Amino acid sequence: MLGSELRKAREAAGMSQETLGFEAGVHRTYISLLERNVKSPTLNVLFRICKALGISASELIARVETSTGEDC
């Protein structure tokens, strides 16, 4: 789901969880919780994370839709 696509995007950007958290203004442990699908981000946090990753939120969501095979 979102967590695995977030992890792929972070790794593709060459960022650690700590760096991404710093750039997005959230704690590293929160990034970890998102990547493990324990938590879901608010839209505000999703936009900040995507900005830090250099991708749009719609692109990340499209990746999630493609990876799960769901058409919403």
Just name the CATH architecture: Orthogonal Bundle
| Average pLDDT metric | 95
Helix content, binned percent: 55-70%
Give me the count of strands.
0
Q: Provide the β-strand percentage band.
A: under 5%
SSE succession: HHHHH
Low-confidence sequence ranges: none
CATH superfamily: lambda repressor-like DNA-binding domains
Largest sheet: none
Seen as an oligomer or otherwise, the chain set is: single chain
Rg of Cα set: 11 Å
The total of helices stands at 5
**CATH level 1 class label:** Mainly Alpha
- N-to-C span: 14 Å
Shape: globular
User: Domains counted in the coordinates: how many?
Assistant: 1
Secondary structure topology:
Layout: H1 2-12, H2 17-24, H3 28-35, H4 43-53, H5 57-68
Helix pairs in contact: 1-5, 2-3, 2-4
How would you describe this structure to a colleague?
It is a single chain. By secondary structure, this protein is mainly α. It has one domain: Orthogonal Bundle (434 Repressor (Amino-terminal Domain)). It contains 5 helices and no strands. α2 packs across α4. It is globular, with a radius of gyration of 11 Å. The two termini are 14 Å apart. The mean pLDDT is 95.
Descriptive tags:
single chain, 72 residues, mainly alpha, 434 Repressor (Amino-terminal Domain), 69% helix, globular
Brief sketch in words of this structure:
The protein contains five helices and no strands. By secondary structure, it is mainly alpha-helical.
